[in-house]
Amino acid sequence: MPVPPPRLAPGGVGSVTLQLSAAAGDPLVGMAADIDYEGLLPIAVAGPGRVTVSFNGKIDAFPAYDCYASYNGATQTMFTSNPPPGNTVTNLLGSANRPVSGSVTFI
Q1: How far apart are CA 65 and CA 107, in angstroms?
Q2: 65 in a domain, yes or no?
């Protein structure tokens, strides 16, 4: 049974860190390599309406990645990352190995 996320009282302060690990392959291609990402996603509330969301982890060397955070109807880009020049689908083999991080604050 999943554990419910912690909740803050209205106007409260605090933080939670989620550990993420994901992998998915193309279901239409037999033996397709997975596209992976993993890392930590800290979410901190510093007061009414002030929220910071971060990501610190690893992504595969292909394809391009985008990461966004949304709060209270506003969306911000945490990071975008294109694959290194020359990388192709053959660079998907193995686990995520390219460090990436980003952070946004909503006020």
Answers
A1: 26
A2: yes
In a domain, 6, yes or no: no
pLDDT tens by residue, 2-57 = 556 556 566 668 889 999 999 998 889 888 899 999 999 999 998 887 999 999 99
Residue 58 to residue 5: CA distance in whole angstroms: 24
Residue found by looking up tokens 């209205």 in the block? 10
Helices (H), the chain: none
Provide the number of structural domains found in the chain.
1
For 76, the domain range is 14-106
pLDDT for 10 equals 61
Q: Which two tokens stand for residue 72?
A: 């209270």
Is residue 1 situated within a structural domain? no
What burial class does residue 53 get, using C-beta atoms within 10 Å of its C-beta: 0-12 exposed, 13-18 middle, 19+ buried? Answer: buried
